[in-house]
């Protein structure tokens, strides 16, 4: 019983900042403090009237979609190699691909910056895409790895055995069974890229992504309420995308008939 | 006898060939965008920069500066201490929750709980860190609420723009990272082991201490590493809530690269940070192995 | 002509030598079993025939055609997997009809073929079910129907019954045997269950450590195993030290007997030998009972009750070795206790000689 109380308090701690976000986004005051002064939608209405913000949203969307696609594609290959084949150097190679998961982001950002500058390449959204793909690939590998591990390799062999080619087998058997994992990987990579700040901060050049733009706005107290409004939309979007990702993960489990273990065991 | 050609044909159909072919896109990508850049950072750390000119003669000057100048030493030490505090706070707070979800929650509700725990992690980190500044500030949510309730007369000032604020904010940000590995290791414990311990005369607490905890230890170690390593390189939180006494090594690295145009010094600090993190992690893993391994 | 012909087949997985030179001919219409403990290479051999593994050395001929470089999807073999590998995202009918996708048949003909295949395995009318909703035995039948619908020359079965409980397994053994006779296709069964192999097969290859130890019909395999290893793997056998000179063998605890050539499946040479005998070929005599068989004396050291049978361990006089004797539990038959003196009846023709 005491454990349950502790768990609930823990959730309150976890959710405190997120709950405050919409409260201040609709509060009719430029100072972010209690007591609340009144209800307004002014801050939300200000969003579409800020061209720099709109541009940063567009940049972020392009970056997030590209990173999600690239990371999922790389993750698909790596996860399949890891789940199906034994090959020389398997552990060190996959370990290296998963490295960004534990490397401090600032190191990744600095390292990429050094090389790009040394090569004289111009910074821009595409350099952020490279960094984000590097960062998202380990997540894609982890998600898709569990999809591949959850299904019996004999299913693919059965398909070859019944006369289908490798490609047809992939299309008829593998893809339908891994599809929930692919969707889930795309959504999660998209979310990570959309929220990522440090790599974008170092590599963004003259077209900031949304988090980099927001960072710039945090210095101006009068802009804070608009940031809160935008943050509310972002959080709502993230929660929506994650719920969809979770739904697909569960559907995938139901399809392969595996036991639901929360996706991490 | 198989000819060389049929041997090669067989190899192209083998596991090795298929695996290598499939893993190569991601491996090459990581090689080009991680291995090469990391090598470049190491190279930079032995060079020097005069305004925009990079001087590529080998020098230990950066490392000498990093060791002798108090500001670098102090930032590095503070980063380690703050990360250590965050790690301990996060893991200690996370264990009971992971235990609750694994042992007390019904199987069909576990996925929901894990989902609930992970959601905050996926929302914008930048905005979460900023919100802690709002919560903890002099005129922030916490102080104004406590004052309105009449619990305090003066705003509490020890909770913003200092290392405490950094620890609280980071502990919040990394909570799911600690909960998940501990939860996974708890889930893998065969429940009949606990029944066996009870059957052999252990109390509830004894069974926990002699069976559950040792078996969950790998998860606890993983949780500690997964929190410790990234936090030491955190940039956003110290900048937003740390004040001058709460800044960490990442802030200095950024300053060297983007403000002072001294990439070699920044690279040196990055290399030192990586070395320190690796050294501490290795020592930690070695100690935990010795402690938990068969004695 | 043999439908399958393997010669000098070897398979390495890295340093692991899974198959160490297999030569094998399997005739059309035969029910053939690969029997052995886990890790003996029997599943690898099946997968080599199916085309899931390439050979490292040697050749595989199917209907006289060299299979080198022919992938699994182009071989005239179909497989029933140990896990059954029922596609979880498809219905029963879609599973069974999976291999017909590219067949030159109309939609109606395909549906009829699927229904016929389902009927053959006793699942008529199950086509619309979800694959996930089936029981273990039903999944096994779906896997069979799916493999047989393509009318393969050879059906490969990888431990197909090991996941079923005992009653269902016995029922499926009889059914598989009947099915094989009615379709007339060559079946190759991989199993670690010696009883299953004996019940179902025309011929059995016993494998140990990547080699075929003995290839024979069930009776020969049971009565005249070529080595102690084979003898111990199939049924129960007691071994006594002995000495052979010409046609005469002297067996510790039993006495002298003359043996024929067929009782020395591994060849005959004078010298020390190991003499094997099955428990059911020895009998314990009741007190006062007479016999014209040969007689030996000893004492009961252990008695194990099996319901229909009782097994006695008997220490024979004049040797350290023990023999196991099985006796039917008939009404009125006396039960011996541990420590009782035992008179053991035996026949020279029951002995098997191992070098």
Automatic annotation (TrEMBL), chain A:
The keyword Transmembrane helix applies. It is a multi-pass membrane protein. It is found in: Cell membrane. Residues 57-245 form the ABC transmembrane type-1 domain. Pfam families: BPD_transp_1. The chain crosses the membrane at residues 7-26, 61-83, 95-123, 129-151, 172-204, 224-245. The keyword Mitochondrion does not apply. InterPro entries: Bact_Polyamine_Transport, MetI-like, MetI-like_sf. Keywords: Cell membrane, Membrane, Transmembrane, Transmembrane helix, Transport. Its main location: membrane. GO terms for biological process: transmembrane transport. GO terms for cellular component: plasma membrane. Signal peptide: none annotated. Belongs to the binding-protein-dependent transport system permease family. CysTW subfamily. PANTHER family: PUTRESCINE TRANSPORT SYSTEM PERMEASE PROTEIN POTI. This is Spermidine/putrescine transport system permease protein. It comes from Tranquillimonas rosea.
TrEMBL record, chain B:
It comes from the Bacteria. It is a multi-pass membrane protein. GO terms for biological process: transmembrane transport. The chain crosses the membrane at residues 20-47, 80-100, 112-131, 165-186, 207-229, 267-287. InterPro entries: MetI-like (IPR000515), MetI-like_sf (IPR035906). Its main location: membrane. Belongs to the binding-protein-dependent transport system permease family. CysTW subfamily. This is Spermidine/putrescine transport system permease protein. It comes from Tranquillimonas rosea.
From TrEMBL, chain C:
PROSITE patterns: ABC_TRANSPORTER_1, ABC_TRANSPORTER_2. This is Spermidine/putrescine transport system ATP-binding protein. GO terms for biological process: putrescine transport. It comes from the Bacteria. Keywords: ATP-binding, Nucleotide-binding, Transport. It comes from Tranquillimonas rosea. It holds the Pfam family ABC_tran. Residues 4-234 form the ABC transporter domain. The keyword Methyltransferase does not apply. The keyword Transport applies. One of its GO terms (molecular function) is ATP binding. GO terms for cellular component: ATP-binding cassette (ABC) transporter complex.
């Amino acid at each position: 019983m005491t454990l349950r109380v502790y768990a609930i308090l823990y959730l309150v701690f976890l959710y405190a900042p997120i709950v405050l976000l919409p409260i201040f986004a609709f509060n009719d005051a430029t100072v972010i403090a209690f007591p609340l002064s009144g209800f307004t939608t002014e801050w939300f209405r200000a969003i579409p009237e800020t061209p720099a913000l709109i541009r940063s949203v567009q940049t972020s969307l392009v970056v997030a979609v590209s990173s999600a696609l690239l990371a999922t594609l790389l993750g698909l290959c790596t996860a399949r190699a890891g789940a199906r084949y034994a090959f020389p150097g398997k552990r060190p190679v996959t370990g290296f691909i998963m490295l960004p998961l534990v490397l401090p982001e600032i190191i990744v950002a600095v390292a990429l910056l050094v090389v790009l500058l040394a090569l004289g390449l111009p910074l821009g959204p595409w350099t952020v895409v490279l960094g984000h793909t590097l960062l998202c690939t380990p997540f894609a590998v982890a998600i898709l790895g569990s999809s591949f591990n959850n299904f019996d390799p004999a299913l693919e062999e059965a398909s070859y055995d019944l006369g289908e080619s490798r490609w047809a087998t992939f299309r008829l058997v593998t893809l339908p069974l891994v599809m929930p994992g692919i969707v889930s990987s795309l959504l999660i990579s998209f979310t990570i890229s959309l929220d990522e700040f440090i790599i974008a901060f170092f590599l963004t050049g003259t077209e900031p992504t949304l988090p980099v733009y927001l960072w710039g706005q945090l210095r101006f107290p009068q802009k804070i309420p608009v940031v809160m409004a935008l943050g509310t939309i972002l959080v709502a979007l993230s929660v929506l995308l994650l719920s969809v990702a979770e739904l697909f993960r569960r559907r995938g489990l139901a399809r392969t008939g595996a036991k639901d273990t929360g996706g991490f065991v | 006898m198989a000819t060389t050609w049929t041997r090669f044909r067989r190899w192209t159909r083998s596991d090795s060939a298929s695996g290598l072919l499939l893993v190569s896109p991601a491996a090459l990508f990581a090689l080009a965008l991680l291995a090469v850049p990391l090598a470049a950072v190491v190279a930079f750390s032995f060079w020097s920069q005069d305004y925009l000119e990079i001087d590529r003669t080998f020098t230990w000057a950066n490392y000498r500066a990093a060791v002798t100048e108090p500001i670098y030493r102090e930032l590095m030490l503070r980063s380690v201490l703050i990360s250590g505090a965050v790690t301990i706070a996060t893991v200690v707070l996370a264990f009971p929750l992971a235990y609750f979800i694994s042992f007390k929650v019904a199987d069909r509700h576990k996925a929901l709980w894990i989902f609930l725990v992970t959601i905050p992690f996926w929302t914008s980190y930048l905005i979460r860190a900023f919100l802690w500044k709002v919560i903890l500030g002099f005129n922030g949510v916490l102080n104004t609420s406590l004052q309105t309730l009449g619990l305090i007369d003066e705003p509490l000032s020890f909770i913003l723009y200092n290392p405490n604020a950094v620890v609280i904010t980071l502990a919040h940000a990394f909570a799911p990272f600690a909960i998940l590995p501990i939860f996974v290791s708890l889930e893998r414990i065969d429940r009949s082991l606990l029944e066996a311990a009870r059957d052999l005369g252990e109390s509830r607490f004894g069974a926990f201490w002699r069976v559950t905890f040792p078996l969950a230890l790998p998860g606890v170690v993983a949780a500690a590493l997964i929190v410790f390593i990234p936090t030491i390189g955190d940039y956003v939180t110290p900048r937003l809530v740390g004040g001058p006494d709460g800044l960490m090594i990442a802030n200095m690295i950024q300053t060297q690269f983007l403000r002072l145009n001294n990439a070699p010094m920044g690279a040196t600090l990055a290399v030192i940070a990586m070395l320190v993190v690796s050294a501490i992690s290795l020592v930690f893993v070695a100690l935990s192995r010795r402690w938990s391994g068969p004695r | 002509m043999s439908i399958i012909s393997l010669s000098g087949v070897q398979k390495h997985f890295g340093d692991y030598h899974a198959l160490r030179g297999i030569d094998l001919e399997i005739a059309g219409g035969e029910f053939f079993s690969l029997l052995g403990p886990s890790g003996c290479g029997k599943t690898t051999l099946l997968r080599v025939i199916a085309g899931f593994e390439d050979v490292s050395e040697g050749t595989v001929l199917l209907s006289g055609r060299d299979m080198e470089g022919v992938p699994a999807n182009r071989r005239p073999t179909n497989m029933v997997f140990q896990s059954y590998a029922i596609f979880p995202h498809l219905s029963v009918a879609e599973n069974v009809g999976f291999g017909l996708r590219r067949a030159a048949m109309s939609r109606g003909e395909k549906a009829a073929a699927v229904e016929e295949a389902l009927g053959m395995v006793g699942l008529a009318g199950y086509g619309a079910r979800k694959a996930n909703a089936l029981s273990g035995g039903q999944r096994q039948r779906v896997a069979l129907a799916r493999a047989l619908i393509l009318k393969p020359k050879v059906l490969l079965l990888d431990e197909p019954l090991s996941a079923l409980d005992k009653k269902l397994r016995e029922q499926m053994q009889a059914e598989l045997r009947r099915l094989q006779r009615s379709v007339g296709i060559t079946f190759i069964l991989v199993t670690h269950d010696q009883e299953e192999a004996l019940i179902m097969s025309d011929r059995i290859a016993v494998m140990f450590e990547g080699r075929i130890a003995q290839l024979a019909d069930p009776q020969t395999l049971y009565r005249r195993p070529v080595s102690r290893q084979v003898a111990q793997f199939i049924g129960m056998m007691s071994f006594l030290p002995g000495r052979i000179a010409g046609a005469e063998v002297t067996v510790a605890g039993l006495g002298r007997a003359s043996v024929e050539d067929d009782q020395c499946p591994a060849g005959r040479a004078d010298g020390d030998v190991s003499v094997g005998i099955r428990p059911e070929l020895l009998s314990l005599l009741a007190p006062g009972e007479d016999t014209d068989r040969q007689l030996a004396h000893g004492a009961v050291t252990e008695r194990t009750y099996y319901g229909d049978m009782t097994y006695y361990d008997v220490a024979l006089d004049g040797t350290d070795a023990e023999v196991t004797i099985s006796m039917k539990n008939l009404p009125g038959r006396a039960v011996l206790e541990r420590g009782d003196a035992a008179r053991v009846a035996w026949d020279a023709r029951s002995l098997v000689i191992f070098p």
